[in-house]
Amino acid sequence: MAGGFYRTGDLGYRDENGALWLVGRGTDMIITGGENVYPGEIERVLLGMDQIAEVAVVGIAHPRWTEEVTAFVVLRRGAQLSLGELRAHAGRYLGGYKIPRTMRIVDELSKNGAGKVDRAALRGGELPFEGESVS
Question: What DSSP state is assigned to residue 40?
Fold first, then answer.
């Protein structure tokens, strides 16, 4: 509790009509080149690609940018996807600093007991992956 409010770690904002919009969790936010990036926004865009069945976006430590936007992708059966295709699609909808610099294709995303993506496992590299593309 802080000032009579229960702190959940959720991040959001109120629009001009007073509606509350949740954009992610504080622990999930990626900081790259001094910019704040919300994984949920990128994931919604990438899920618009026919090749992608599931996706999770996390920040991976980077010596210059603090974190690098990385997409962990589960492809639909028989689909193929290059980093260039992913970046081109994302570039139509997102600012340049939000476009994933790295893509890792995985068989499945690790989930926690609540069925949510285990982002800590992804950030820590605890998941095996089939291939990696780096720009």
Answer: H
What residue has token string 């919604």? 44
**Enclosing domain of residue 66:** 28-127
Q: What is the DSSP string of 48-97?
A: TSTTEEEEEEEEEEETTTEEEEEEEEEEPTT----HHHHHHHHHTTS-GG
Give the percent of the chain with pLDDT over 90: 55
Phi-psi group of 115: left, alpha or beta (phi > 0 → left; psi -120 to 50 → alpha; rest → beta): left
pLDDT at 50 over 50: yes
| Cβ pair 90, 46 in contact under 8 A | yes
Closest of 118, 112, 108, 123 to residue 69, by C-alpha = 123
Overall number of domains in the chain: 1
| CATH number of the domain enclosing 73 | 3.30.300.30
| pLDDT above 90: residue 14 | no
The answer to the question of residue 9 being in a domain is no
CB atoms within 10 A of CB 123: 16
Is 39 inside a domain boundary?
yes
